[in-house]
Amino acid sequence: SWTMDAFVDKEIARIRKIVGPHGRVVGAVSGGVDSTVAAKLMHEAIGDRFHAILVDNGVMRLNECANVKKMLGDKMGINIKVSDAADLFLGRLKGVTDPETKRKIIGNTFIEVFEAEAAIIDKECGGEIEYLLQGTLYPDVIESISFKGPSATIKTHHNVGGLLEDMKLKLIEPLRELFKDEVRALGKILGLDDELVWRHPFPGPGIAIRVLGEVTKEQVEIARLADNIYIEEIKKNGYYRQIAQAYAALLPIKAVGVMGDKRTYEQVIALRAVETKDFMTADIFASAEWFVCLKRISSRIINEVKGVNRVVYDISSKPPATIEWE
Ligand code: XMP
Description:
It is a single chain. This protein is an alpha/beta fold. It has twelve helices and nine strands. It has a five-stranded parallel β-sheet, with helices on both faces. Strands 6, 7, 8 and 9 form a four-stranded mixed β-sheet that branches. Helix 2 (33-46) links the parallel strand 1 (24-28) and strand 2 (50-56). It is globular, with a radius of gyration of 21 Å.
C-alpha cells in the first residue's frame, strides 16, 4: 500500500540518521515474522553494519536453525551469527519440571548468551556497536506498560535490559507503532516470502514448554518430529492460513496400545490448532473435513515417531485454557 511504502522510506531514513555513517547495530533473530521484518528493514538501511544473532537454545523446531541461517544469511544477505548454546540450555533445564522455572531459565540464559555474542562482535569491530534492534510491536509496547497478567511473563525473554546497561546500547524499535497485520504487510513490501510473512507465532521458550515435564534431548526430538509432521500435513492440505497457531505437544504420561500382536506402553502427543484474532482469546480449529485430516496425521505420527502410540486433539478454548500447555 502507499502508506506502507512511505513508512519503509521514512523508517530507513530515520534509522540511517540515528545510527550515522559508522555506527553498528546488533539484534536477535528467531526466524519469526517480527524479528525477520525488523532485521530486513535494518539491513536495507545500514547493510553489513547490522549484525544478527541467532541463539540456538536446543528447543527450536526441526531444522529451524539451519533454515533461518539460510534464509537470512544466504537469501537475504544479512550478516548473521549462529550461537550454538543447545547444550548449555538443556543442561540448565535438567530435572526442571515447573513451567515458570523453565521460562525463567531459558529467558536468563538467552540474555547471557546473546550478551556474550554481542560483546564478541563489538570487540571484533572496534567497539562500534551502539544500538540494539528489537522487533517490538505496538501491542507489546501497550502490554508491557499496562498488562501484568500472564503476558507479563511472556515477554521476560525479550528483556535484554542488562545489555542496554552494561554495553550502553541504545534501543531501536522500528516496529513499535505497528500491529501484526501491518508487520505482515511491511514484510510483503520488503519482498519476504509468503511462507515467512504468514508464519504462525512460536514462543521464545520454544519446545521446552511443549515437552511437558522434564525437558531432555530425547523428549525434544519426539516433540519436534511430531510437530514437523503435523505442520507439514497442515500446509499440504491447505489449512495453514486458516489456522492462527498449531503445534504438537508431548505429554508426560504413557498409554497402552497394540502393535501387531504386541502390547505397547508409550507416550502421548497432543495436537493443538486454534483460530484467534489477538491471541488473548482463542477457539479450537474444527470442521468435519479437518477431523478426517487429523485422523491421517495421527496415523502418520504414530507410525513415524518412535516412542509415541497415541495422539489426542486438544478441544479447549482460551479462556480458560491457554494456547500453550505450559
Ligand atoms: P498463551 O499460552 O498465553 O499464549 O495463550 C498466547 C500466545 O503467546 C505465545 N507465547 C509466547 N510467546 N514468549 C513468546 O514470545 C513466550 O514466553 C510465550 N508464551 C506464550 C503463544 O505461543 C501464543 O501465541
